[in-house]
Design a protein that fits this description.
Blueprint lengths: L2 H8 L3 E8 L4 E11 L5 E9 L5 E7 L2 H17 L5
Antiparallel strand pairs: 1-2, 2-3, 3-4
Length: about 90
C-alpha cells in the first residue's frame, strides 16, 4: 500500500452532504470532490442544489491536492454549521 492510498483514507476527496427539513419543504444536496488536473495541481469540484433537480457546479483550482482537500474540509465545516449532514 502506498502512502497516497493511506492518505486517501485519512483525508476525504469526495463528500456528499444533505439538508432535509420537511417542515420548510427543504431538500438540498451538496457534493464536493477533489480531482487532479493536467498541470500537476488539483481541482475542488462543488455541486449543489435541490434534491431531484440539476444542481449548480463550481470548480476551484488549487496548486496541489493538499490545498484542495483543506478547502473541502473548510467548506464541510461551514455546511455542517448550516445544518447539512452526511
Amino acid at each position: 500500500m502506498s502512502s497516497a492510498d493511506e492518505q486517501g483514507e485519512i483525508f476525504p476527496t469526495h463528500l456528499t452532504l444533505r439538508r432535509i427539513d420537511l417542515a420548510q419543504n427543504m431538500r438540498r444536496f451538496y457534493l464536493m470532490q477533489v480531482q487532479p488536473d493536467l498541470f500537476g495541481g488539483a481541482s475542488l469540484i462543488r455541486e449543489w442544489g435541490r434534491i431531484g433537480a440539476r444542481g449548480r457546479v463550481l470548480v476551484e483550482h488549487h496548486p496541489d491536492e493538499g490545498e484542495a482537500v483543506t478547502s473541502l474540509l473548510s467548506m464541510a465545516r461551514t455546511k455542517a454549521r448550516r445544518g447539512y449532514g452526511t
